[in-house]
Amino acid sequence: MLTIIRGMVAAVLILAGTAAVTAAPSTTAQAAPAPQPNILLITTDDQSLSDLRWMPRTRRLLGEGGVTFPRSISPHPLCCPARAEILTGQFAQNSGVRHNRGPYGGYKVLKERNTLATWLDGAGYRTAYVGKFLNGYRAADGRVPGFDIWNPTIKNVYGYFDYTMFNNGRFKHYSTLHNADLVGQKTVEYIRQLSGRRPFFIWASQVAPHTSCATKETCWQPPLPARRHRNVLADAVSPSVTSPSFNEADVSDKPGYIQDLPLRDADDITYQFRQRIRSLQAVDASVADAVRALNEAGELANTVILFTSDNGFLLGEHRFYGKDVPYEEALQVPMLMRGPGIPRGVSRPQTVTTVDIAPTIADLANVRPGLTVDGRSMLPMAKSRSAPSYDTVLIQAGTSRQAELENDGWRYRGVRTARYTYVYFATAGTTELYDRRRDPNQLRNVSGDPRYAAIEAELTQRALLLGECAGSFCRQRFGPLPKPLAGR
Question: What sequence ranges are listed for the domain Sulfatase N-terminal (predicted)?
Fold first, then answer.
């Protein structure tokens, strides 16, 4: 069936006005936009949605002070592709960045001369970057176009201590300053430096709570918190170890890579979890420092702050440790936004994605993107809970494995709706389908279940269509799905 449907994709893309697909609303900015605001984008690395519970200042200053999107997802839950989505507003089939490395991955694949940074820089924004950048970036690559201040980590990116920063070409090494503190301090410095007549854009890219990797021999260890946070949160319990999916007993319906996994040690997972949320304490403090610096500079009232993570993370759910898998713990990420014109203290029900960040910032800045973006501005949804959003989102993962490269660099592809998650692994020939309303922990793969046959067929078609999408077609609404048949 996949082959038959794939042959229909091109025709359906051309005839996008069919009854099954309705046009998405325009995402252009209003005719009379407000003066261009400053924009501060703060990102973490591998932060699960549930980790936000242990960041009280971030929740108070950005969540209570703005809008929270609890249904935000990273549709390509891996570092480099997600950051490419942020820079381009495009899914990986259009940005080209499908993995962290290999022929379809890494910084080398990014079209660096046409990104969010160049759009803003060309529109008069003063721009700065500090922290972790795309995988594969090297000091020899020099300043990335569009950034006036360029300060990514260039050596020991995952070390937390004993790392080197680009520092606008005057490399600087830090032995004892925790990386989250450095990123926070530089963010404050750049706020003070760039405040003035022209608006600014700062991307503060934190590495926490990613695992640490000081040397090849020590990869990948739990993250290292700042020294002042080494013993805090000693009684915190990981949501993963209390989840029904932790060390899932029967994984016979899961793909082979899950079936091959051993059971996880709960004590080790608890330690890993506590180190993760401890590493986030310095990030939480840096958010408060940035808000304070904006206020002292007289810029807070005219600054939009966005906070998110590149992807989520699993800690033993389905026996898995890591990301880049089609399970909710990897897909779900925090998304908070505060600033002028944005309501305070509200939570919105719409699905938003990492791909929406670039269009949102372009909308805020009244800047026309230099390429065709696949995402949509989140501003209408921030302002109204009835603003339209996705009913179906493309989710996918690339690969650098030789055996899988024959599938154009894809490991799995699929779609996610408010109720269902569907993916297919082309090389392995396996599929997964979860009814998250009945099975929120994704314990039962109902792919092949006759009761879900019509649903699976429709989701298969949507996955193939969106896998080829670009621009507004990626934002199409397909309409309601069939209902599962009654059980026997």
Answer: 37-367
In a domain, 225, yes or no: yes
Residues 147/130, Cβ–Cβ less than 8 Å: no
Which domain range does residue 266 map to?
A: 38-383
Residue 186 lies in a domain: yes
Alpha carbon of 329 to those of 212, 272, 316: distances in Å? 20, 16, 10
Q: For the chain, how big is the Rg over CA atoms in Å?
A: 22
Structure tokens at 453: 């046959």
Residue 130 in domain:
yes
Q: What is the pLDDT of residues 311-351, one digit of tens each?
A: 999 999 999 999 999 999 999 999 999 999 999 999 999 99
Tell me the C-alpha distance between 394 and 176, whole Å: 42
Residue 123 is assigned to a structural domain of this protein: yes
Residue pLDDT, tens place only, 52-74: 999 999 999 999 999 999 999 99
- For the stretch 398-408, pLDDT in tens is 999 887 888 88
One-letter-per-residue 3-state SS of 216-271? HHHCCECCCCCHHHCCCCCCCCCCCCCCCCECCCCCCCCCHHHHCCCCCCHHHHHH
Distance between start and end Cα atoms, the chain: 26
CATH number of the domain where residue 258 is located: 3.40.720.10
